[in-house]
């Protein structure tokens, strides 16, 4: 587990790669603050399995936001 404390003006996506820099675990569960197609593509190319919930109005959000995955992310 890795974490960082930043000012409120810094967006979550800006520090995501720094947090993952020395991480060997390939699965990343993140919250909606990290939802970004570009970030997901970038991390997938680096070998990470990157999961964030989808917004309710996004296509297939109900299937994607399965309660078990959301519960795992909260632990």
Automatic annotation (TrEMBL):
GO terms for molecular function: DNA binding; transposase activity. GO terms for biological process: DNA transposition. Residues 2-74 form the Transposase IS4-like domain. Pfam families: DDE_Tnp_1. This is Putative transposase. It comes from Streptococcus mutans SM6.
């Amino acid at each position: 587990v890795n974490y960082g404390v930043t000012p409120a003006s810094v967006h979550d996506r800006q520090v995501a790669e720094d947090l993952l820099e020395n991480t060997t675990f390939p699965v990343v569960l993140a919250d909606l603050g990290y939802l970004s197609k570009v970030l997901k593509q970038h991390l997938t190319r680096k070998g990470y399995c990157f999961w964030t919930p989808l917004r309710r109005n996004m296509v297939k959000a109900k299937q994607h936001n399965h309660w078990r995955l959301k519960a795992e992310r909260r632990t």
